[in-house]
Amino acid sequence: MPIRAIEDIDKLRRINEALVSRVERSMEQQGNAFSLFQTAINLETRVRTRTEELRATLRHLEQSNLELVAAKESAEQANLSKTRFLAAASHDVLQPLNAAHLSISALAELQTGEEGRKLVRQVERSLETMEDLLRTLLDISKLDAGVVQPEIGDVPLEPLFSSLKSDFQPWAANKGLKLRFRPTHAVVRSDRTLLRRILQNIISNAIRYTRTGGVLVGMRYRGPILRIDIVDTGRGISNDQRHAVFEEFNRGGAAADTDLAGGLGLGLAIVRRMVDALGHRVDFSSQLGRGTVFHVDVPLAIGPHSEHAAVANEVEKPRGYGLFGTKVLLIENDAAVLEAMKVLLERWRCDVRAATATEEALDALGDTGWVPDIIIADQHLDHGDLGTSTIAEARDYLQRQVPALLITADASDPLARLARSSGIELMRKPVKPAQLRALLAHLLA
């Protein structure tokens, strides 16, 4: 029906409203579709932007990782170079330090006045402090680099305690302190050298920071573990210093209680590194004003260990210091060390023949009427010769197992094993003359 034929106005109005409503709905639908279209475009733009930002971030992270890897490799190389440098430098520095020790010892015997002896003692203390610092720095470097390989074996404690008591008794007595070691026949599983250094550093600290009373070294059995206790009556350690005491150059704020020479604050830092290298455990308990107890837990040796086994490993005490007339073949390529050692031995009334390499040493033995009582050699000699090989050739030439002593700044474990297997005593440079004299007397006994 045509619209003009509709006479009902209300009906016409309703039709009009329906048409308007339909048009409006159609327009709304179109508007919504357009809005969705715009929204989709905006979302795509935002996703593209975020994706680019993420890619840029990933590229930055990759670059950072590459830089970190390069920095890590550089740090590792620097650490390795530092270790090699310290090892090489220590040999070069210890050589003149060794010559100085020997020369000072010879000079001390020439002094007749108290003033001269006092000056000699001051120089000796300075040299010992320098030696301790150099050895400590080298030890820390080697431990940090992981180049120290412990030689684990059965270690009787009684001879170890006797050696430590001999070293520290004069110092403790000079301070008016009592130093006691509980007798024991215990045998533990450890590296003898490293374990001795651990106990040495702790005992040294105990004596240094104790004014009155004394230091006691004892032990307690805890199943398969032996706990070694180092007890002192010193000033104690506060709780806020509990972890700091194992850090480098930390002296616990106790400088006023130390000896005049003081300490370097490196002893316990080395203890921690050595304990970790051995797989042992170290801890302590302390009360301010009452003292400190350090505990070192070491595994006991497995199997029967008689009292005689411990005694058999103890180094015999020297029977005497008489070296008069002792024939010494001295092999050393450093001119200053050679001269200082020769002067010192001659002061002890030894008959010395010197050489700098294997060929010279064999030439010195050409006189069949002169047979050395002992051979003293450095490891690194002229012409690339090695002291261990030179000693072996000299023994072959003489057709006898002449006692031999290798004095070297080379602290490597392979050299120690080689010397031990060859029946050669080993002493590290710089040499303390008193220890050298005692060891020579022991080897000649």
Automatic annotation (TrEMBL):
Catalytic activity of the protein: ATP + protein L-histidine = ADP + protein N-phospho-L-histidine
Which is a Gene Ontology cellular component entry for this protein? plasma membrane
Keywords noted in UniProt: Kinase, Phosphoprotein, Transferase
- The answer on whether this UniProt entry bears the keyword Transferase reads yes
Q: Which residues form the Response regulatory domain?
A: 327-444
Does the keyword section mention Chaperone?
Answer: no
Chain positions with 4-aspartylphosphate modification? 378
- Supply the InterPro entries for this chain: CheY-like_superfamily, HATPase_C_sf, HATPase_dom, His_kinase_dom, HisK_dim/P_dom, HisK_dim/P_sf, Sig_transdc_His_kin-like_C, Sig_transdc_resp-reg_receiver
GO MF: histidine phosphotransfer kinase activity; phosphorelay sensor kinase activity
Task: Provide the Histidine kinase domain boundaries.
Answer: 88-302
Q: Which Pfam families does this UniProt record tie to the protein?
A: HATPase_c, HisKA, Response_reg
Enzyme Commission code(s) on record: 2.7.13.3
The identity of this protein, by name, is histidine kinase
